Amino acid sequence: MPGNTFGTLFRITTFGESHGAAIGVVIDGCPAGLKADIDFIQSELDKRKPGLSTITTQRKEEDKVEILSGLFDGVTTGAPIAALIFNKDARSKDYESLKDVFRPSHADYAYQQKYGIRDYRGGGRSSARETAARVIAGAMAKQLLNTAGVEIYAFTDAIGKIKMNRDATQKELNNRFSNEVRCPDETTAALMKQEIEKAKAEGDTLGGIVCCIVRNCPSGLGQPVFDKLQADLAKAIMSIPSVHGFEYGSGFEGITRKGSENNDEFFTDEKGNVRTRTNHSGGIQGGISNGMEINFRAAFKPVSSILKPQQTINQKGEIAEVKIEGRHDPCVIPRAVIVVEAMTAIVLADHWLRMRTDKLY
Amino acid sequence: MPGNTFGTLFRITTFGESHGAAIGVVIDGCPAGLKADIDFIQSELDKRKPGLSTITTQRKEEDKVEILSGLFDGVTTGAPIAALIFNKDARSKDYESLKDVFRPSHADYAYQQKYGIRDYRGGGRSSARETAARVIAGAMAKQLLNTAGVEIYAFTDAIGKIKMNRDATQKELNNRFSNEVRCPDETTAALMKQEIEKAKAEGDTLGGIVCCIVRNCPSGLGQPVFDKLQADLAKAIMSIPSVHGFEYGSGFEGITRKGSENNDEFFTDEKGNVRTRTNHSGGIQGGISNGMEINFRAAFKPVSSILKPQQTINQKGEIAEVKIEGRHDPCVIPRAVIVVEAMTAIVLADHWLRMRTDKLY
Amino acid sequence: MPGNTFGTLFRITTFGESHGAAIGVVIDGCPAGLKADIDFIQSELDKRKPGLSTITTQRKEEDKVEILSGLFDGVTTGAPIAALIFNKDARSKDYESLKDVFRPSHADYAYQQKYGIRDYRGGGRSSARETAARVIAGAMAKQLLNTAGVEIYAFTDAIGKIKMNRDATQKELNNRFSNEVRCPDETTAALMKQEIEKAKAEGDTLGGIVCCIVRNCPSGLGQPVFDKLQADLAKAIMSIPSVHGFEYGSGFEGITRKGSENNDEFFTDEKGNVRTRTNHSGGIQGGISNGMEINFRAAFKPVSSILKPQQTINQKGEIAEVKIEGRHDPCVIPRAVIVVEAMTAIVLADHWLRMRTDKLY
Amino acid sequence: MPGNTFGTLFRITTFGESHGAAIGVVIDGCPAGLKADIDFIQSELDKRKPGLSTITTQRKEEDKVEILSGLFDGVTTGAPIAALIFNKDARSKDYESLKDVFRPSHADYAYQQKYGIRDYRGGGRSSARETAARVIAGAMAKQLLNTAGVEIYAFTDAIGKIKMNRDATQKELNNRFSNEVRCPDETTAALMKQEIEKAKAEGDTLGGIVCCIVRNCPSGLGQPVFDKLQADLAKAIMSIPSVHGFEYGSGFEGITRKGSENNDEFFTDEKGNVRTRTNHSGGIQGGISNGMEINFRAAFKPVSSILKPQQTINQKGEIAEVKIEGRHDPCVIPRAVIVVEAMTAIVLADHWLRMRTDKLY
Hints:
Shape of chain A: globular
Mean pLDDT of chain A: 95
Low-confidence stretches of chain A: none
Order of helices and strands of chain A: EEEHEEEEHHEEHHEHEHEEEEEEEH
Largest sheet of chain A: 5 strands, antiparallel
Number of strands of chain A: 18
Strand content of chain A: 15-25%
CATH class of chain A: Alpha Beta
Distance between the termini of chain A: 38 Å
Oligomer: homotetramer
């Protein structure tokens, strides 16, 4: 059953396995007339590229994007945009020892049950390497949204028990990729890095929270009932490997407030713009953006690929010990930040196009 | 742009406004040969019916379901099942005073911006009354899942600051609808009821958490990449009015654990079934159910319709005071529990059918 | 598996059986702000209403449309529009004798094989009565297209061996529903009527051709590759019961022309409009409307419900004779003309909305 | 707006332009466990490869398929299968002279109107070269259908005025690709070849008819109402460039028969199989396959790229003469036969999978 396509009007289909020939994406529905900046796409990919720092996997992939179709003289034509990244540093032999055992908290067992076959090399299709394809699509979505002035900022809000306990300034947001952990607060970032290095030294891993805010988003994005903006964002974000939670606006914390404390009063600002005094709605009301800042948070579990030996079973159901080799991230958050931005951009681009058919005109 | 359809193989389309002639649903894709128990559908609807207790809205709706198609001698034929509930106790005049103002934290403003027109009577399409249609569809989905033994239990886990701090027993789960707040712990339920009554007396409202667990779910549900089971569940639950957060398995809390603490080790139990010793995965790995208990939690904000006067603006952008009349729930959780179950059932039924095309056979 | 939904942005879902409680449709995606003329919808339905003349079935159905949702003060709000027709003159007992036999060239056998159960009363879901729901949706689509000036004219081009061998004038097109057979040429119409009456007297039935032309259609409708305008029109028309062929522009006849004879040369007319000297392209090039008149033809087989006794088998596979009772059309064409228009309008409305996201602006 | 995806459960997305880097396809939904024969895919591609004979275009493309994903040890894993053909012999300079004029009966003008930009090199996305990607997908669909014994035979039934006036034998069907025109009757094939050579010599082109029959198709494929098997086949076939007509079973010819002549009587054959004495239904009743042979015909217009000078307009709307250079087919039918088979296989594979959710079991 197909499950590799996302979006309705800005629609992406990804393909490829971690240790296959290539991973890639087809973007169908990008409007004609958009000047595509390939360098920008590459710079986005570079933000999730492995091997960039001591706290990420040491797999060396250049992750160079190749655009195969959909552009003419650098401009979109309305035709599908296919893009590829060839895999270069796959070391499948690292996985030979894993072909008969199910790694704890990985997709191995579930895939085997579902399909009766699995590509065990690097996790195959279940590898987070697939998200590179999403970043390509996200980079196109961002360029589309740029024409409307929409700005998307994701950043690391927590790593394990280390949390950034304040809002970021606009300048900090602009520089969010300037440190290795992608936390806008440099002091917190340093602490987070230490924490990751410590876990790595122990052969262990950490989780955390990515926060995302969207500025200058027009009102009207999202559809009533099932395709509410928060519902589509939740699906997009929850489809990223390791994400176990999503909340927007008042989120989980807001449940202890009373309605009179939580409601966002409307007013008209000095420029004549309708705004709300608080923003517990997170920029979305009735499933539809209201022009205020959209904000949400995603909880990532600690990476399942730990280097410590673990108990598990093999394909026959017998007890087995597994010791994961291969090159892995001790914490996925720093590289996931750009993936969160990409999925956010894809959802917003889709709904920005969907909005065009709302009214008679 | 269409947004009123949910699901791929078990697909529902809802329609109708709070104060229109009727609300309803078309279920397309329910397999032929299922004996449909209409009394069961009605009993599910009765669990979200307004006016049942002192802590819910006093609108009196019988919410009687009428099945128009898709059954022959009480059995599904494969044809679409259309079901209706006629609205009987709409008091649209209660809303006359609201037609020119935007209620804080409601859909009013966003709808107006999006469509240039809105049905202000009872919130029109944005009303949670729409969820009655989902309950009908959920009741059919449950009957379908029953043939595979799948059991779904949602219940109230928190109301405002009152929280049930333990797991429910199977017996408590079976009796989860026996008290008005739908909390399996009777003592906590009593406290919750008091809390709601207190808020109601103040003209205020409360939020809370609904927890849902699924037992006896086969492995293999969910699809890799975008249509992961947790992603589709998140979308389904986040599309319910007032939900601001979704988490499954280790959720937000789990981010402070290390990988070695969070991983779920596999073993084979005495019956030969593969199980995990812990279940931080929440029954889902790589986006696919692994046969363990599925569990998730949904955060509901406090109801926006408070009876206290509030500052807002009118359609001209001028400051206005709004005092909401009408009949409203001081807390939506007790009636939302069955809606969470319905959406869960719809997602699982869909993926249970999708699973049929995974393998060659 | 769902199969009762058609369209992507202007999307309809129909439901209901011939002898069930009601038939109906949900239209999702009709833009907000369209003034809906219910009388017009009813007048469209009246064009396919049974019992109108001596050459149609004598089943008496008022076919009165009831709109349940999606309108506010008579204007579309962007919410789904649900519409119903209650069945009033179903005589299910006429079908008792047919419950164990498979009528030749009907859906009986195929449905039984597919579903293991079938609603034999009046053909259940396979009845052409379902097309009344399409006419309702088509009437809304026409009103939407009216805002762009698009004009749709279907008419009877052939009944059995009687054919209208010339183009219709604009005046004749405007009056196409003025005679019972819906043929713009009154002389031919009279011959056709005789032919139908003759077949009816023999307990036999006739087929024919419906031609459809679309005037004032903007260029740009249709999508490259799979969703070409002719492909979506073909699917729409071929989904109408009894249709066995579809051709547009040069069609089947054109295969004997050479490229140099068949190509349509462009020129700019005195008003500065780009036109072609011939129109073998039928108004569609590369899958996309080019602004010229769109034209196509649909072949309808003779009605399968003949009153003569026929050989067949029963559910046990034994030879049986079947004699169809009930009330049936000796020729479906006169009532199918409006259905062809409806499906055409639905396809064009869908592509007219889809066109809005083609370009950056 | 996306339009490059076809199918619901066996779903393909194609991409690439005639003179771009590559063309390709992503197949999503092919069940796991299918042994993929890459040589077979290549042999299918070879049947539409350009430059094979004197009566096809002289463009030299090896059309070598590369599979990038979805297979593990040569077996499908349930992951999307991406396949590429790199373009090697594109001579874009042949098209320089065409960049400002609209070739008659091509997509040039319609694309320009729709998108405001077009890739004029070889027709860009509108080129029939895109169908090579469909052939790859069709080859996978055929392998899937092989597991159920389904056999698909398309062949050339007419070229211009030369028509094969009889049914083909099974042996002739098996050898349908043994001559250059793909007509099972060798004598007719020779005449057709002469006709094509004659047209080619004149710088002119021909159209024709491709007939397709499907043997051993199970009953139950197709869905009631909109996704009738004939409707999805019609869409699939009408989406192939140059196709202007589609008919199945009794088709256009059948409209002159009476119901009593056209109805197919059921009987049980000596093996206990339910069959019909005639097959005017073309193997499909009520939109669903009935187990009889499925048959349909597609009308192809003469190729629009003629070498004779033609009148047209340029992008400014001024009269211009166009003389098409480049390498073109004088008749598309011989290479289109395998494309018709591919699209047929894709539709049948899709419905064969869809059938799995029809019934409770």
